[in-house]
Structure to design on (541 residues):
């Protein structure tokens, strides 16, 4: 009897082990996130790959090819980016793919495709014909899953000077173009695919479908990255991270800080202390309107009107960088004074977004960090000793807007143009006085309200007015005037890195100019800026 019981217990224990193992495996499988790793070899298109993947509602991260910051076990599929390098150069990035190739579904793009040939027994050489721009795919294997829902002859975009001359034995060509024989291939017995063209660019007609085929049909990655799921997981993560601690956040009136605040508010409610500083360089009525809006949204926000303090610090300064510094330093002083009034605050929240934190790979040296210092509340003094929480750190600007929309933030607020931190301080050329601020606020107000009235506001990425440090002669009635010149600027852009001036209707410009000259005392001439960036910049200072 005892023996039987023993056997039963052993059996039971074994069963328990099996169950525990099954549960552990399930937990591990569940934790095996639907994350895609993009290994960056420095291509100008790498962020675009990430954008396309996110558009498929799949979460992905970009890491430099030589980063040690990621654990490959956390990813369900890997994409190798393009590169400005040639695989044949001495400086070539040569990452160890032993944990990836043949073990995870892998897609090599352009340089990634050549890399998988060059370092695994094939031959890559310089190409005889131009391989930039449009080409058409001709399937060698039209049943291949990579081409699901893609028609033969589909347009793709090429951008490479090297070409794959000879493939290793176990590589099978699945598509060619007129000039590129090995335009797409698969490695036999591996979920490894590679394409010479760029599926991430707009001109590759079925690029998004191809990425979906690879990620969803071949790699079986789930499409569960939605604004709602982001809100849910981020709120949970914030709660776990900051617990019952107090968090302080500087609101700017812009999209990023507002969305970050609403997320934190959802997570920790009144333990979030928002500070909205009026530096006196905001748009007309902006301080009152935005503060009112924040209060209506239920945020725990304190408005601090420090206009005089800023103006005092700016007195007599004309150099743009000195003005920027003065504005930045005064902001820190004001913010610090206010943060000190919050007893026992432990965290500083920031609206940093993904493009600000992606490490870019430089062509000449090692990977370098590109972090825009002028954004957010960067550079707070060390003695504040606040820990940092950045809930938007892993998402792109348009995703920030989608997240904001899913949390019910006013679409008008989410659609606002970007506005520089130093505000009118870098749009008043030369030194700044209260009178100049008044003039420019009026001019800017007429311009922006006009854009809205004419339904042009959403066609423009950023708009504003500049007060020039020159007077010009005019005539009003019978009187000679000698007053200020203002320049209006409206640009289209996607990220502010490059921009072009917007071809606003003449009638609109005419109406705006009349309104400004008739309505704003001190201005007698309006010009419209028709410079692109580069070579000009968006702001004049
Ligand atoms: P630029 O003038 O460099 O502007 O072509 C590109 C984008 O950056 C904004 N910008 C700034 N934003 N602090 C900011 O927060 C600054 O000092 C600053 N300077 C320029 C500019 O408004 C545009 O969106």
């Amino acid at each position: 009897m005892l023996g039987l019981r023993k056997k039963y217990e052993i059996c039971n224990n074994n069963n328990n082990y099996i169950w525990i193992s099954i549960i552990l495996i399930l937990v591990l499988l569940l934790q095996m996130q639907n994350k895609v790793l993009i290994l960056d070899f420095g291509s100008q298109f790498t962020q675009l790959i990430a954008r396309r993947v996110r558009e498929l509602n799949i979460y992905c991260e970009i890491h430099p090819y030589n980063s040690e910051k990621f654990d490959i076990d956390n990813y369900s599929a890997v994409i190798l980016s393009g590169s400005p390098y040639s695989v044949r150069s001495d400086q070539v990035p040569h990452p160890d793919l032993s944990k990836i190739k043949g073990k995870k579904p892998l897609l090599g793009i352009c340089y990634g495709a050549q890399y998988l040939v060059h370092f695994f027994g094939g031959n890559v050489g310089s190409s005889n014909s131009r391989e930039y721009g449009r080409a058409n795919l001709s399937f060698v294997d039209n049943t291949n899953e990579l081409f699901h829902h893609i028609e033969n002859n589909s347009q793709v975009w090429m951008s490479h000077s090297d070409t794959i001359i000879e493939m290793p034995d176990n590589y099978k060509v699945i598509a060619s173009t007129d000039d590129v024989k090995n335009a797409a291939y698969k490695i036999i017995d591996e979920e490894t695919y590679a394409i010479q063209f760029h599926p991430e660019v707009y001109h590759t007609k079925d690029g998004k479908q191809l990425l979906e085929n690879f990620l969803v049909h071949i790699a079986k990655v789930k499409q569960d990255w939605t604004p709602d799921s982001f809100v849910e997981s981020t709120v949970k993560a914030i709660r776990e991270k900051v617990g019952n601690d107090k968090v302080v956040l500087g609101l700017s009136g812009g999209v990023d800080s507002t969305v970050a605040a609403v997320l934190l508010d959802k997570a920790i409610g009144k333990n979030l202390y928002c500070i909205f500083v009026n530096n006196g360089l905001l748009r007309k009525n902006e301080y009152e309107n935005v503060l009112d809006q924040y209060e209506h949204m239920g945020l725990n926000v304190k408005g601090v009107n420090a206009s005089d303090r800023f103006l005092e610090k700016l007195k007599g300064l004309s150099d743009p960088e000195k003005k920027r510094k003065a504005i930045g330093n005064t902001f820190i002083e004001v913010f610090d004074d206010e943060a000190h009034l919050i007893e026992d605050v432990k965290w500083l929240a920031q609206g940093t977004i993904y493009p600000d934190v992606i490490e870019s790979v430089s062509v000449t040296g090692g990977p370098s960090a590109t972090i825009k210092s002028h954004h957010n509340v960067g550079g707070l003094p060390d003695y504040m000793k606040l820990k940092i929480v950045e809930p938007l750190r892993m998402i792109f600007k348009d995703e920030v807007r989608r997240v904001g929309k899913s949390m019910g933030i006013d679409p008008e607020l989410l659609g606002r143009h970007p506005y520089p931190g130093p505000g009118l301080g870098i749009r008043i050329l030369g030194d700044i006085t209260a009178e100049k601020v008044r003039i420019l606020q009026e001019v800017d107000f007429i311009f922006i309200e006009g854009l809205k009235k004419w339904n042009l506001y959403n066609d423009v990425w950023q708009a504003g007015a500049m007060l020039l440090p020159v007077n010009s002669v005019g005539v009003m009635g019978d009187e000679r005037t000698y007053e200020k010149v203002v320049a209006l600027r409206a640009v289209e852009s996607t990220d502010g890195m490059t921009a072009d001036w917007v071809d606003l209707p003449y009638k609109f410009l005419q109406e705006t100019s009349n309104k400004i000259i008739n309505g704003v005392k001190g201005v007698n001439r309006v010009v419209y800026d028709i410079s692109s960036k580069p070579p000009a910049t968006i702001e004049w200072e």
Remarks:
- Residues 2-31 form the longest helix (30 residues).
- The first strand starts at residue 35 and ends at 40.
- Residues 324, 374-375, 418, 420-422, 462, 496, 533, 537-539 surround xanthosine-5'-monophosphate (CB under 6 Å).
